[in-house]
Amino acid sequence: MGQTVAEIGEHALIERIRLRFPPAPRFVVVGIGDDAAVVEPDRNRLEVLTTDCQVEGVHFDQTFVSAGDIGHKALAVNLSDLAAMGAAPRVALLSLVLPPAFPVTRVDALVDGMATLAARARISIVGGNIARSPGPLIVDVTATGSVHGRRVLTRGGARAGDELYVTGLLGGAAAGLRLLRADPSKIGASVDKYRRPEPRTRFGLMLGRNRAARACVDLSDGLADGVRQIGEASGLGAIVEAEALPIEPGATLSDALGGGEDYELLFAVSPRLRSRLRNARRLSSGLTVTRVGRLTSDRAMLLSRNGSTEELTAGFEHF
């Protein structure tokens, strides 16, 4: 199994991690290795901050995900939050809570998975923390981005009559997890969606810059939860059209509505601003975008299916 984190020691492990990330950009004055990072602010922009963690036994099972998958996903979920706010990624902090027997080579793989995505997203890892865990592995990331004050996307701000759109395909992560639980050797698109979700960083940035969307949320807890979040924040109801949903092959309607972990974007667009949406899609290499419903002045949350309507199910909740 090789050397463990307890055997190598904290300081050597930090240095090992530091060497796996590329040099920080010029706006990072102090990076990994000091008590805290020091970063120059982005002039005339607002800072957007988010944090999320991946907990073994809750968010992942090492039986069927690799250490690289864990590192990728820990950063991806934070990048997805920045995308939903229309923010450009800047820097991130990584905290690892490690069991003493955790192999150093798996730390290397975890960091490499994160570093590969960080390079694509143009975000710099500038510091963090290492602590000992008596139980599960925990990977915690805090990320920051920047956005012009007039281009911030939030969950509120939508209006009755706005159309609801989603990026990509839905339900793939839930379907992939189901396959892996039955057979850890399974491969395929839905398995990839679960193991290494692709944050819609550029598209979120384009939505904000073009002011194409009035409201936006990332789909960490399923489409139904996202629709409710936008509706409640905007004081509106919604009708979701089941037949319109772009569902991943092998996934079900239930996966799409409540499975979670797809990390696609759900956003509201005024019918008058469809040209801005088309432009955002063009600037994002033609990412698939599908209209899935509309917002209503009636506060009811509804699903339209087979010519009738029913109450929209709830999304995933931890508690």
General description of the model:
The longest helix has 18 residues, at about 65-85. The mean pLDDT is about 95. The protein has about 325 residues and is an alpha+beta fold. The chain is globular, with a radius of gyration of 20 Å. The protein folds into 2 domains: about 10-150, 60s Ribosomal Protein L30, Chain: A, CATH 3.30.1330.10; about 165-310, Phosphoribosyl-aminoimidazole Synthetase, Chain A, domain 2 (Alpha-Beta Complex). Strand 12 (about 300-305) and strand 13 form a beta hairpin. The strands form 3 sheets. Strands 8-10-7-11-9-12-13 form a 7-stranded mixed sheet, with helices on both faces. The relative contact order is 0.16. About 35% of the residues lie in helices and about 25% in strands. The two termini are about 35 Å apart.
